[in-house]
Description:
Blueprint lengths: L8 E12 L4 E6 L5 H14 L6 E6 L5 E5 L15 E6 L2 E6 L2 H14 L9 E11 L5 E8 L5 H13 L4 E6 L19 H13 L3 E5 L17 H5 L19 H18 L4 E3 L17 H20 L3 E5 L24 H7 L5 E5 L9 H9 L5 E4 L9 H15 L3 E5 L9 H11 L4 H5 L2 H15 L22
Parallel strand pairs: 2-3, 8-9, 8-15, 9-10, 11-12, 12-13, 13-14, 14-15
Antiparallel strand pairs: 1-7, 2-4, 4-6, 5-6, 5-7
Helix pairs in contact: 1-2, 1-4, 3-4, 3-13, 7-8, 10-11, 11-13
Amino acid sequence: MNVFPAPSVCIEEDGLFVFGEKEKLYLIIGKDIKNPYFVEKCSELWRNFAAGKSGLEVIIKDDFCGCAVISKKCDAGPIHEKTDYEYELDCSENGVNIIYTEEHGLIHGFSTLLQMISPFNLKSKNFNIPCCKMCDRPILKMRGVHLCVFPETSLLFLRKVVRLCGLLKCSHIIIEFWGMYKFRFMKEMGWEDGYSAEDLKPIIEDGKAFGIEFIPMFNHLGHASQSRFKAGKNVLLDNAPEYEEYFEPGGWTWKISNPDVRILLRSVREELIDLFREGEYFHVGCDEAYMADGDDDGLNAEQNKAFVNFLNETADEIKASGRKMIMWGDMFLNKDRYPFPYSNNVSNRCTDSENNLKKLSSGIIIDDWQYNVGEDMDETVKFFVGCRDKDSIILSPWAGYESVSYTDNINGRCALAKKYGLLGVIATTWNKLHKDPKELIYAACQMWSEDNKYADRRSWEVYKCFGMQNVRKLLPSGGVREKSGWIEGENIIDYI
């Protein structure tokens, strides 16, 4: 059974739940479901996965709590059972029962069910769902994906990615706008052809329908240009060069000693939080700061103190807004102690990195990104665990370097997060996601599952095939070539 991620337990049984073309089904749920976006979108998603030929009507009843039923009858009764899993599916010839502990269980059970709908049988004019019993739950609490919105990122592509992340049961999506958000408080902070809040609203609602929590991100130190380093652009300075005093020489790093910069960053956060609404986290970046305090030498004691104070003060402001601050961990890794293949980009500038980490507010969450290491390399994890609470540490893999295989890096980060009992994993995608979705799918499966079975069972090509099959159903093209597939063209090597 091709379900991504594969469920914890699946017992296949004889028989099929068969439903025909134009035959209306009913999803009966209780008033305990508070997610209006799921209620609104689930009928559309069902129809998409049923080739536009089967409808699903949602009925809300008082006596349904912790359970849902998909049936041909609108008067089906509730299930009086409990589960120790996040959700259980009981698929019989009469329909499907879903038992869940919390709202996410229903949403994730429904995502599993969508993938179980068979192709349309042209002779019988029927669909079917195989009879089985499934029990499922995630191993990691946070199963996130970091998405970049580049100038080349279309709204359609972003919507496909968000829906795919939802189907894969990701819990969080970090959105980082590379100059592509039109800030209302200061138009020069975004490109003229960027996206407005109204443009992004349908995409955000799609994610929330799948139970995803969005994490806004804006770089508060390095990457201040909102552009890839090799591109040489700087959104604010290209739009308004008179703001050069807001940056360290070169324009890559914010001049955080300037109080006006602090005000600007505060305004950025306020607007991005308003864009995504409810949520628990805000990511401030703070990696790869090539310049600070006007030079590129190591920080002295006073500069180290200013660096930590800036982080703690920012965290306090974010906490006052009702969120927790997440930041990258490389600025606390000394290059002598953690040489390559560990990533410690320019972190030697913070010459008292371990002491800086110990002075950091306990509420700040560290995201340890390592792209060249496998499961057996846990030195940075042990370092952060030795200084921080386990619930304040996230690990991040990527699929971009050659020194270690994609599977080893993703497997390693996920395995270490499970081994040490950390908050979770955020899979980064950067400039590689446009090529195909296989690493995203693989990472989502590993974040959910309790072992590495995916590495042995399937090839990359299989992930590509089933990935595109699901994307095709999540957001049908309607026969329009430009709306189909994962990329707009078919002869593109690397357009970002």
